[in-house]
């Protein structure tokens, strides 16, 4: 499958950052459950559970504790290209069970930078402009930006 990466400003949110850690560590952080709690939600919120079955159709389930509110997120991987691309969505759960109210599909693109770091692009695709606007108001740029900063800091400790 060829992924169409043409962005639609009406429904997509995205940003690119350069991380001062090698790509293999960024990939490891995103794909091994023991690493997810260290970066996946902005502190002081917490990830309290992670289930990863890293294959197309495999689960990517997380549970957050946000100010005492437990939030369960179920999803599946749509594409897994080791150390290059990770696509997951909450539109389905494992077994291709459709979600009643899907929110988004996330696309992470990783590539090497000349200095040994990682070019990190995050794209959040939404089903309509209202959902995109809601995600932006929820703090997509600050929240996902904080997450990538936390990821970089954590991954540096793994080097």
Automatic annotation (TrEMBL):
Pfam families: AHSA1. SUPFAM superfamilies: Bet v1-like. Residues 21-155 form the Activator of Hsp90 ATPase homologue 1/2-like C-terminal domain. It comes from the Bacteria. InterPro entries: ASHA1/2-like_C (IPR013538), START-like_dom_sf (IPR023393). Belongs to the AHA1 family. This is SRPBCC family protein. It comes from Hoeflea ulvae.
